[in-house]
Amino acid sequence: MKNIIFLFAFLFMFQLASAQLFSKEKILNDENVDKAFLSYGYFIGFNSYDFNFDYKQDKPDIQVAKSTGFNVGLVGNMRINDYLDLRLEPGLYITTRTLEYPESYFNGIDFSPSDLEREVKSTYIHVPLLLKVSTKRLNNFKPFIVGGISTALNLSSNEDNPDDNSAGKFRTKKNMYFYEVGFGIDFYLYYFKFTPSIRGVFAINDELVRDADPNSPWTGNIESMKTRGVFINFTFQ
Which residue numbers delimit the Outer membrane protein beta-barrel domain (predicted)? Predict the structure, then answer.
């Protein structure tokens, strides 16, 4: 499902850009929208989060079953010049990942089928600070690349829960830090600017809260567990 959404978003951006580039229409929509020092907007979109694992011992990988999540937030834009903008995009990002453990992690331990899976629900308040680098405006569209750093507060982390996986509670850290990179296209419509974009996010710090038992089958073999993900956002300004 997520691959279909990502493909649709890419084809949608390509079709709009092609239409603007090869159109004979030269009337510029909303010519002054980019001249304001400060501007604001909002975004909605989709996300697909994953985990990247590093292991202590050479065992089969833990598999991650991903789902398509939802994003919504605000945009604050500060114009530096015609080609550079500094952006703050605080938002709410909701997702669910399911960890699927190989049975070999439980050698010598009694386990039930439910022990082989752990659902990780995440509700991030995600705050990125981004530098947007744009090309010259072409008719009524303008491609750009974007990159920066971000922090996130996971409201569903379970970090302070005294129970761990032995009681069925998988725990992650509340505070996360990321770097981000992506690209998009500004489309200048008659009444507003519409911007589809795709961005990759990569965690800097380890997100895992380990079980009390250092030999826990759920956390004992994990050296680090870092979030990574893809965002597709549609911004209106």
Answer: 36-207
